[in-house]
Write a structure and sequence with these properties.
40% of the residues lie in helices and 11% in strands. It has 242 residues and is an alpha/beta fold. It has one domain: 3-Layer(aba) Sandwich (Rossmann fold), CATH 3.40.50. It is an enzyme of class 1 (oxidoreductase).
Length: 242
């Protein structure tokens, strides 16, 4: 019996199944399962109320999910500060993969934010800038869905070591699915090479972790892969996954 069978049975008995109950049973049942099995469960459980997010650092998650759920909605937060290479990767994804890329825009343009809050907010108050240009737009965009798929991994930073493959996103009151949470960088590199996955060309220029252009620098040999994000600002997360 699969987890989907169990949940269908529970629904038949009770009429509805609380999303948090789904999280608890799925997190235990799917720990250690292959990424595609986790995605297959999410697609079967949530159907069209499931989406994924992508920063267009690479198309690994897009490749994985589209093989299981063609036409899936991919939310891309167009902050107005992206590298040209990131926008180019997004455009290539639209052409190569069977997905529906949806551009998510902040409520203010960069020019309007500069006018209202002063220029270079990203340097003066990076937490506020990330909230306005990433977190708040994503929160709005996720409202129609019951669950979203993220590509975060446990080995990326100390704040992500406890990531579960299925979690309750209390802030947004929805389910969060992390199918590659247990993957290592070697797993990522092997999958990209074996499957010809599109990647952002900035990776070839020592940008292992890619965010907005003003807050991302090249990483030197021996440095932590995420050390190029918000360097010198005492910040390690944009807030989306907190």
């Amino acid at each position: 019996m699969t987890l989907v069978d169990i949940e269908v049975g529970l629904k038949e008995q009770s009429g509805t199944l609380d999303l948090q109950d789904i999280v608890e049973s799925a997190a235990t049942f799917l720990e250690g399962a292959p990424a595609r099995e986790i995605i297959r469960w999410a697609a079967a459980t949530f159907g069209d109320r499931l989406c994924l997010t992508s920063s267009m650092s690479d198309a690994l998650l897009i490749d994985l999910v589209s093989r299981v759920k063609p036409g899936v909605d991919v939310l891309f937060i167009d902050t107005g500060y992206h590298f040209a290479e990131t926008i180019g990767t997004r455009d290539a994804v639209r052409q190569v993969y069977d997905v529906n890329v949806i551009d998510i825009k902040p409520s203010r343009t960069v020019e309007e934010q500069d006018r209202d809050l002063g220029p270079r907010l990203f340097g003066r108050n990076p937490d506020l800038c990330c909230f306005l240009r990433k977190v708040e737009p994503l929160n709005r965009a996720l409202e129609p869905y019951l669950a979203w798929i993220s590509g975060i991994r446990r080995d990326e930073s100390a704040s992500r070591t406890d990531t579960r493959v299925v979690e309750w996103d209390a802030k947004r009151q929805m389910v969060k699915v992390n199918p590659i949470a247990a993957w290592t960088q070697e797993d990522v590199d092997n999958y990209i090479a074996d499957n010809g996955v599109l990647i952002n060309p900035l990776h070839y220029d020592n940008y292992p972790s890619i965010g907005c252009a003003p807050c991302t620098r090249q990483v030197l040999e021996g440095e932590d892969p995420r050390s190029g994000r918000w360097a010198g600002l005492g910040k390690v997360e944009c807030g989306i996954h907190l």
